[in-house]
Design a protein that fits this description.
alpha+beta, 23% helix, 14 strands, single chain, 3 helices, four-stranded antiparallel β-sheet
């Protein structure tokens, strides 16, 4: 009786371990598939990016599989990045909530360049996001630091002239995020933000605007 009981317990434990291994493998495989899917919309020549949180470094893998590490020195968060249309450049935004942040560009020719650093420049605004319009112009969202009122305005950065200019386009009160997508074959940029519904800036409602990239690029060139 005891021997049978022991065999039953041992068999049950082995079966549970087997299920754990299968489940673990499935989760790992799902993660790998997700990682591949996340880069499927990127141009074929694009460099693949990842963030080493332990060393706070940007890991770049070129189209031939060679990996290079670039230390980022500060700003532990790595919330967003966007590939240029050619796939040869990447802009990425790092920031800490309601504190300082930076926007950097990776290119094969120059490695990692910092184009905005609110701590270094002692600016009153900090970057919240950045996307490419083409391989020259970048659309930036910057908001006030340390503020209790939600804020965020739109800017254009010219990588050739190394200049930043405001683009007063958004009809809401504050932009909180910026994303890219497509409507059919037309590249679209979404300006995601809010509109205040009271005079004390305590209440708000969502406000989103969509613009074709070609329209925004034309406006950027005219600044």
């Amino acid at each position: 009786m005891r021997k049978g009981l022991k065999k039953g317990i041992t068999g049950g434990i082995l079966f549970v371990l087997f299920l754990c291994i299968v489940f673990s493998y499935g989760m790992t495989n799902d993660r790998k598939q997700t990682a591949v899917a996340s880069t499927s919309s990127v141009p074929k020549k694009a460099y693949e990016l990842s963030h080493n949180f332990i060393n706070n470094a940007l890991q770049v893998k070129n189209p031939n599989g060679k990996k290079t590490s670039y230390p980022l020195n500060q700003y532990s968060d790595f919330p967003s990045y966007d590939y240029s249309p050619s796939g040869e450049k990447v802009v990425f935004t790092q920031y800490e909530w309601e504190e300082d942040g930076a926007v950097r560009i990776f290119s094969p020719a120059k490695g990692v360049e910092t184009i905005v650093d609110s701590k270094k420049s002692k600016s009153s605004v900090t970057p919240r996001g950045a996307v490419w319009l083409d391989d020259r112009y970048i659309l930036l969202v910057q908001g006030s630091k340390y503020g209790t009122v939600i804020s965020g305005k739109l800017y254009v950065y010219d990588t050739k002239l190394k200049s930043t200019k405001p683009l007063p386009l958004f009809k809401g009160d504050a932009i909180t995020n910026i994303t890219t997508s497509k409507t059919g074959d037309t590249p679209i940029i979404a300006l995601i933000g809010i509109s205040f519904t009271d005079d004390n800036f305590n209440r708000n409602k969502p406000h989103v605007e969509y613009y074709p990239v070609a329209e925004l690029l034309k406006k950027a060139k005219a600044l």
